[in-house]
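Example S7 (structure tokens).
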């Protein structure tokens, strides 16, 4: 039993390490792009590999949902992507007499969860930190697997400390 726990703990640490260096997200756009190679429209979203993208400059996935009433119908527009967390900074190098660029990931740009912006067309922005977590149809389901995994990891750590 202890060997299984050690493997699970090692695996959970591996997930955390992966998340700190980039994340795998679903990417789709509200409309079809002219480039047939992608990104694909969210109206065709099917959780397949063609919608998966690596996000080396992000630690979160995002899903944006907009709803607009048009006459008798309600239209929902969805977009999935990597959360934009890259910050390009430029510093002047006095020794080289030129500007050097540096890219950073701003981890504090967003927090996990959903937030609705009240504008002409309200938009709901949801951010999550597990691989492919932005594929849910429902925004509330985005975070249920994330929470369950984190609670399970915490329980394993606590159990491990009491039984070693």
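Recovered sequence:
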């Amino acid at each position: 039993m202890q060997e299984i726990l050690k493997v699970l703990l090692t695996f959970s640490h591996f997930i955390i390490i992966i998340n700190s260096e980039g994340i795998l997200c679903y990417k789709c756009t509200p409309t079809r792009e002219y480039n047939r190679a992608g990104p694909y429209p969210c109206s065709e979203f099917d959780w397949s590999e063609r919608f998966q993208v690596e996000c080396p400059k992000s630690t979160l996935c995002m899903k944006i949902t907009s709803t607009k009433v048009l006459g008798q119908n309600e239209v929902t527009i969805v977009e999935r992507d990597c959360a934009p967390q890259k910050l390009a900074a430029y510093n002047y190098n006095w020794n080289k007499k030129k500007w050097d660029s540096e890219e950073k990931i701003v981890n504090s740009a967003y927090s996990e969860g959903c937030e609705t912006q009240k504008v002409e067309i309200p938009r709901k922005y949801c951010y999550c930190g597990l691989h492919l977590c932005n594929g849910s149809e429902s925004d509330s389901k985005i975070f249920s697997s994330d929470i369950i995994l984190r609670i399970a990891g915490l329980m394993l750590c606590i159990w491990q400390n009491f039984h070693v």
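Notes on this example. The longest strand covers residues 61-70.
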